[in-house]
Write a structure and sequence with these properties.
The protein is mainly beta. The protein has strands at residues 4-7, 10-13, 18-24, 35-40, 47-52, 59-61, 69-74, 79-84, 93-99, 116-117, 121-126. Strand 5 and strand 6 form a beta hairpin.
């Protein structure tokens, strides 16, 4: 059963913006757990992009997106969003949302710490 679903990917010109959304389903709740975004470009390993801790009080970003991307969560709606501004061609990748299964801890940056994964959404940035 699908428990994490991403949406919001698409095609955009360099400098443009996209907002990715991650929703929990099938009995999964994001309440009390960290959620992260990862991305994988063709021929490359899946890399950490951003993560937010269980309360929303702490967030982390890979250096290449700092100042351009913002992660946020709305526990009441069981969703986590990634606002991406100033997009660059090198941001092109499949973006994955992942959820921790250990509650009330800081947000991991290692993908091996995440248990629930979505199918991914494609983001393509044209130069």
């Amino acid at each position: 059963q699908v428990q994490v679903v991403e949406s919001g990917g698409g095609l955009v010109q360099a400098g443009g913006s996209l907002r990715l959304s991650c929703a929990a389903s099938a009995g999964l709740t994001f309440s009390g757990i960290a959620v992260g975004w990862f991305r994988q470009a063709p021929g490359k390993e899946r890399e950490f992009v951003a993560a937010i801790n269980w309360s929303g009080g702490r967030s982390y970003y890979v250096d290449s997106v700092k100042g351009r991307f913002t992660i946020s969560r709305e526990n009441a709606k069981n969703t986590v969003s990634l606002q991406m501004n100033g997009l660059k061609p090198e941001d092109t990748a499949i973006y994955y949302c992942a959820a921790d299964r250990n509650g009330y801890r800081d947000a991991p940056r290692d993908r091996r710490e995440y248990y629930y994964w979505g199918q991914g959404t494609q983001v393509t940035v044209l130069s």
